[in-house]
Amino acid sequence: MPAKRDPYSSYGQKLISLFAALLFSRQRHSLIELSRMLSCSKQTVMRLVENIKMSYGVDIEESIENMRKYYRLKRRVGVDPTLNLTESEISVLQMCRAFTEHLLGHQLFEDAAQALLKSQAHLPENQRVDSRHFASFIPGTIDYTPHHQSIRLLIRAMEEKKICKILYKSIMTKRAKTFYIKPLKIFSHKDTIYLHVRMARYPGKPYKEPDFDPLLAIHRIKNLEITERAFVFPKDYDFENVFNQNFGVIKEEAFKVEVEFTEYAAKYVAERIWSPDQKMIEKKDGTVRLKFSASSEPELIAWVLSFGDEAKVIKPIWLIKEVRKIISSMQEIY
């Protein structure tokens, strides 16, 4: 029998977590999303849903769209949950706030901070959670304070499903260009906030389908306006399938990689997940060989070189040749 995905969480804890997720959210949740959230199989999620419905008489709506099953708690009109956060929940939120505040800036977190203070006020004095327990190490981060308005507008545009007109300057161009976009998802990667979009038709011009859906760095958006043009959220869009399938935020054609690590690098790499399909071989001498898939050659090479002489590309041959070229160029510089 395979090991449980989360052996430290009991069936009862998963049941409570699922019920809370459905109770406090007005949105529907896919079976895959709930499976990831609870760290269990889809079969277990379906069993939990049936237990909630049968044992507590809760009306949970089920629907299927694009071959995916979704769940949502059916609410009674005028009835909303008024439970306060627990000490443990507040401590986790305080931690999340401290770990991410440097990314967005203090101002954007004021609403969240007020919500935490309101909930914490209901706890006994000896159970209050001090935010000073948590912090972040922030060298090399981007100051997103000047971009708060763009972020708020993008959130509104996504909620209202409105096309946006943006002035965007990529890192390698001299001048900013105007685009019309359908904002789909805001996400963070290595302390940078990205916007994944699909292109919209430029007024007065014929539409040309791009080769790929653009990935925009929010701090490079120079101006943003929400237009009156609406869009339909694409039914085939799946963020997890696009981004969380292999190494690299840049999504080009995926390729298989083998890299061997020694000393500190071996221990560091062995602690982490670099790609969902990774296979790790740990040898008796402490060497670690990592087999995985990647979609971005520049990111992969930079990552390998960051380990110095404690990382060596084994496969593919063409990647070894590219690394050699870069190392030769570096020798000439130094």
Provide tags for this entry.
alpha+beta; 334 residues; 4-stranded antiparallel sheet; 10 helices; 4 domains; globular; 5-stranded antiparallel sheet; SH3 type barrels; Arc Repressor Mutant, subunit A; disordered N terminus
Number of strands: 12
Which regions have little confidence, pLDDT < 50, spanning 5+ residues? 1-5
Q: Estimate what percentage of residues fall within beta strands.
A: 15-25%
The average pLDDT value, as a whole number, equals 83
- What name is given to the CATH topology of the largest domain? Alpha-Beta Plaits
Question: Could you spell the SSE succession in H and E letters?
Answer: HEHHEEHHHEEEEEHEHEEHEH
Characterization of this structure:
The chain folds into four domains: 11-73, Arc Repressor Mutant, subunit A (Orthogonal Bundle); 87-133, no CATH class; 145-230, SH3 type barrels (Roll), CATH 2.30.30; 245-333, Alpha-Beta Plaits (2-Layer Sandwich), CATH 3.30.70. Helix content is 35%, strand content 23%. It has helices at 11-24, 31-38, 42-56, 87-104, 110-120, 148-160, 239-243, 263-270, 297-305, 317-333; strands at residues 29-30, 60-65, 68-73, 162-168, 177-189, 192-199, 215-217, 221-230, 255-261, 279-282, 288-294, 311-315. The strands form three sheets. Strands 7-6-5-4-8 form a five-stranded antiparallel sheet, with helices on one face. A four-stranded antiparallel sheet has the order 10-11-9-12. The longest helix is centred in the N-terminal third of the chain and has 18 residues, at 87-104.
